[in-house]
UniProtKB/TrEMBL annotation:
This is Golgi SNAP receptor complex member 2. It is a single-pass type IV membrane protein. The chain crosses the membrane at residues 191-211. It comes from the Eukaryota. One of its GO terms (biological process) is vesicle fusion. Gene3D superfamilies: 1.20.5.110, t-snare proteins (1.20.58.400). Involved in transport of proteins from the cis/medial-Golgi to the trans-Golgi network. InterPro entries: GOSR2/Membrin/Bos1, v-SNARE_N_sf. It comes from Cyanoderma ruficeps (rufous-capped babbler). It is found in: Endoplasmic reticulum membrane; Golgi apparatus, cis-Golgi network membrane. It holds the Pfam family V-SNARE_C.
Length: 212
């Protein structure tokens, strides 16, 4: 398990470095970088499935720590996946704005003997609405990032508290039944955190649908 864990952890750091290349990539290569990052993230998720199975087979005295390490990797890669999707959404909005601008500049205006009609107000209004939606999305993404960071901080706190409880439990020689109850509570806390993250992403998606 240790070898696979180290390999997966290295892959997470590599994806983090690849994320920095997105902002500096040109239009022709940005899609290639996005595809490369997504392929690496998919590979990490595959490794995490194997790690979860292996961690459940660890000796009882090492099992809890192994699961916590795997959970940390899972949180990190989920954060990277969310960051990639946010970048792709911002890129899509920028490209849409550029297409609208180019269509506006390329439009041929017609004239007749009585008057000259230039249907530009509606297009400008749409472009302003699109820019407003873009700003709203940036603010929403920032709020979502803060929420996810808060969840992460809470998880770190819970992990530290849980470790202390396990240490105290080992010192006091608590029964196996109590230890299993503690592990069950930690498992439930993990799903509560994941549920909160999923709900946040769903709210962001619905707001994007509404704004656009």
């Amino acid at each position: 398990m240790e070898g696979l864990y180290q390999q997966t952890n290295k892959q997470v750091h590599e994806v983090q470095s690849y994320m920095g290349r997105l902002e500096t990539s040109d239009k022709e290569s940005v899609h290639l970088v996005e595809n490369e990052i997504q392929a690496r993230i998919d590979n990490i998720f595959s490794n995490l499935e194997r790690l979860e199975i292996l961690s459940s087979k660890e000796p009882p005295n090492k099992r809890q720590n192994a699961k916590l390490r795997v959970d940390q990797l899972k949180y990190d890669v989920q954060h990277l996946q969310t960051a990639l999707r946010n970048f792709q959404h911002r890129r899509y909005l920028r490209e849409q704005q550029e297409r609208q601008r180019e269509e506006l500049l390329a439009r041929t205006f017609t004239t007749n003997d009585s008057d000259t009609t230039i249907p530009i107000d509606e297009t400008l209004q749409f472009n302003e609405s699109l820019q407003s939606a873009h700003r709203g999305m940036d603010e929403l993404i920032g709020s979502g990032t803060n929420i996810l960071q808060g969840l992460r901080d809470q998880r770190v706190t819970l992990k530290g508290t849980h470790k202390k409880i396990l240490d105290v439990a080992n010192m006091l020689g608590l029964s196996n039944t109590v230890m299993r109850l503690i592990e069950k509570r930690a498992f439930q806390d993990k799903f509560l955190m994941l549920g909160g993250m999923a709900l946040t992403c769903l709210i962001m998606f619905l707001v994007v649908q509404y704004l656009t």
